[in-house]
Amino acid sequence: MRLRLDSAVCILLLAQLDLVFGNTEILNFESILSTAFPELNISRFTINAQSTAQLLSLELAPHQPAWSDICDSMNGCSHEIFVKLDLGKNHKGEFVKEHEKPMYSLRISSTPSPPSQFTIAVLTPRQVYELIETRNGSVPIIQDTQDLSQTRTMYARIRARNSGVQVPKEMTWHLFPPLVAEPSNQALFHLVLDPLLFGFVPKSVVPVIWAILVAGALGVWSLRWIKPKLENAALSVSKEMKSKR
């Protein structure tokens, strides 16, 4: 009984850690120059290559509708959020040159409760403008784009729905109110913009790669000192065992 209680407490504590994620969605995309639409005011959140993470929340849509039917006909949908991606500078803080096309990875990591699914799309300002106008029931009228400036700003369109996983109805959430949150239809998630070095290596894993390389180099270097000692110890044990026979 003690073991079961200790295990239950550990599970409850782990469930509250933001580092324990239950779902991950990843989209790799290319930063491109596109026509700027200064009148766009659709996002309250912005991330860039230097400030790469944002904690957000979304109300989950029901599981049954297809993604194409979620937030397809109205603006201000509670199951959808737009995040502005300011990609004019790279992760070093340098302005991206016109001919450059940096690669990025956009990653969503959500908590396991409530069970949720996400979909991500990266849109240019023009695509966002056309989407908004279509939802408003009007035909998008694009003015002469020659008079508009070029930008690397893009927008992440994120939608969320219930994953359809059934949560037990008899869960005693009220027994541990400080530890276990009440069931909610609001999903918390981290949105992370990760520059892809050389077009395919996420910048966030570079420290891990260096740690592995350093550990490997130290292992190879120390092996020439450790191996003779191990061989001598093995020979000593072997001789001792033979002498006892």
UniProtKB/TrEMBL annotation:
Protein name: Protein PBN1
Span of the signal peptide: 1-22
UniProt keyword Transmembrane, yes or no: yes
Species of provenance: Thanatephorus cucumeris (strain AG1-IB / isolate 7/3/14) (Lettuce bottom rot fungus)
Keywords tagged on the record: Membrane, Signal, Transmembrane, Transmembrane helix
Residues passing through the membrane, by range: 208-226
The keyword Transmembrane is annotated on this UniProt entry: yes
